[in-house]
Automatic annotation (TrEMBL):
It is found in: Secreted. The keyword Calcium does not apply. Belongs to the attacin/sarcotoxin-2 family. Residues 1-23 form the signal peptide. The keyword Signal applies. GO terms for cellular component: extracellular region. InterPro entries: Attacin_C. GO terms for biological process: defense response to bacterium; innate immune response. Keywords: Antibiotic, Antimicrobial, Immunity, Innate immunity, Secreted, Signal. This is Diptericin A.
């Protein structure tokens, strides 16, 4: 009885040690000694280019739907970049829209046009 209980305690201790090594596979950071520091990712002699600058481009979106009996709806939206600051945090886009109902029992509607602008500030 004494042998089996001590065997079970040893087996349980090994299982705990094995499971903790699986749960924490990385070494303790206090044990790592790095004598040479890693080189800098940039050099102060060069101009630093911001990483968050986004290349913006012209966008055109369209949609529509309907049926021959009820007529069709047509929508078009456009967005074009006009200005962007040097660091890419401020930008202004021009927008335009067009919409019209075509056909159906009431005929064609007058076209609806829209224009505007969108200012964006990126934190």
């Amino acid at each position: 009885m004494n042998f089996t209980s001590s065997f079970l305690l040893i087996a349980l201790a090994c299982a705990c040690a094995f499971s903790s090594s699986l749960a924490y596979p990385y070494p303790d950071p206090r044990e790592i000694v790095n004598l040479q520091p890693e080189p800098l990712a940039y050099s102060p002699n060069f101009d630093v280019v911001p990483l968050h600058r986004v290349r913006r481009q012209f966008q055109l979106n369209g949609g529509g739907g309907g049926s021959p009996k009820q007529g069709f709806d047509l929508n078009l939206n456009a967005r074009a970049p006009v200005w962007q600051s040097h660091n890419g945090r401020h930008s202004f886009d021009a927008t335009g829209s067009y919409g019209q109902h075509l056909g159906g029992p009431y005929g064609n509607s007058r076209p609806q046009f829209g224009a505007g602008g969108v200012y964006t500030f990126r934190f």
